[in-house]
Every structure is written in structure tokens, then in C-alpha cells.
Write a structure and sequence with these properties.
By secondary structure, this protein is an all-alpha fold. Helices cover 56% and strands 0% of the residues. The longest helix has 22 residues.
Length: 61
């Protein structure tokens, strides 16, 4: 799996870390970031469909 490096403000990283670990929703930061990216892409796809920028049949590909 390719690795990506990003700069994140400390406040955002602290908020992310609140959801990672034994008592969090995610096992590690990578899992949390992947889930966030997936969710964002899904939302963007829904917006594009509503705006008529993509056909909903194309979105299933």
C-alpha cells in the first residue's frame, strides 16, 4: 500500500487521536484517516450526482 505524508495542525491531530486506540473507534491513525477519506469521497460523489455532474450509474463503477 502506498504511503502518503501530510502536514496536519496539532489541534486537528489531537482531535483525531481522541478517536484512536483501545477506547477509540479506530485501531490507529491510518485507519482513521482512510475512513475519513472514504467518507469525504462518498459525500463528494453524492454532491456531484445531485448537481448533475455525474450520472448515478457511473458512480457505482
Amino acid at each position: 500500500m502506498p504511503k502518503v505524508s501530510v502536514e496536519i495542525p496539532q489541534e486537528l491531530l489531537d482531535d483525531l487521536d481522541d478517536h484512536v486506540g483501545d477506547e477509540g473507534k479506530f485501531v490507529n491513525r491510518s485507519d482513521a484517516i482512510r475512513a475519513s477519506i472514504r467518507k469525504t469521497l462518498d459525500l463528494l460523489e453524492e454532491i456531484d450526482e445531485r448537481q448533475g455532474r455525474i450520472d448515478s450509474s457511473e458512480a457505482d463503477d
